[in-house]
TrEMBL record:
Family annotation (CDD domains): HTH_XRE
SUPFAM superfamilies: lambda repressor-like DNA-binding domains
Taxonomic source organism: Stigmatella aurantiaca
Pfam families, sorted: HTH_31, MLTR_LBD
TM stretches of this protein: none
Superkingdom, natural source: Bacteria
Residue span, HTH cro/C1-type domain: 27-99
Protein name: Transcriptional regulator, XRE family
Matches recorded under PANTHER family: BLL4672 PROTEIN-RELATED
A molecular function GO annotation: DNA binding
Amino acid sequence: MTLFRRARLRPVTAASLSSPRSELGHFLRTRRARLRPSDVGLPEGARRRTPGLRREEVAQLAGVGVSWYTWLEQGRDIQVSEALLERLSSALRLDAAERSYLFELAQGRSPRPVAATPPIVSPLLARTIEAHRHPATVSTMRWDVVAMNGPALKLWGDQRGTNALRNIFLGKVPPLATAEHEAHARNLVARFRSEAARASAHEQFQEIADELRARSPEFRRLWTQHDLYAEPEGTKIVDIPGTGRIELAHVTLMHIEPDARTLRVLFYSPVGPESEQRMARALAER
């Protein structure tokens, strides 16, 4: 007696599988649903019927039209550039594997590899900042962090290869003490505007400014005020977890590397005995 009938196998065709564009739309929806507005620097607003960001919020963060982004989530066969995919990847906070998957679905290829190591500073400059017993950092003129000494790495973590403006305005590093954040952010934007006006590679500054205006309401507000900043030194208060507030004096020096790059070197020093003691304790505990 035959108890089981052999199943009739159907050939697998392209029509029986989800198309890459349909899968792309589903992937974008799931990535959008997992983010809260506060994760990307947006206000929470009223209670939401569904979790996650709205389509118009993702479009705003990525600097694209709402209709265009809606069509992409719907799986329509529309043109998608590499630059646009990079902006979507950043807006949706994709990790390396998710970024690669996004490119595979949208363009059938892997993305260009991200540089694994940041630019290297000259040995002389590296020794100079390491000789400073308090934090010191080195960045490009558009605030790409290229070097940090030991104390800076201990206090703030490894930020080499990141952009200081993105770190501050997109919440990628812990903010400064609340009382100082507004003044620090205002000065940072004013200095960035001043340096962008003098830069020969203006488009590199414009790229950062356009991204932050689209993604950070705070940066957008400060940018429209057109403040300029030229002071090379000052003080600020930072809040170190487990240690408390430390008042730091900072001085900025411009350094020309052997390869003709102009770099910004920031040296920090604690102000007063209390900040000195807290700094020593914070460094000893890390």
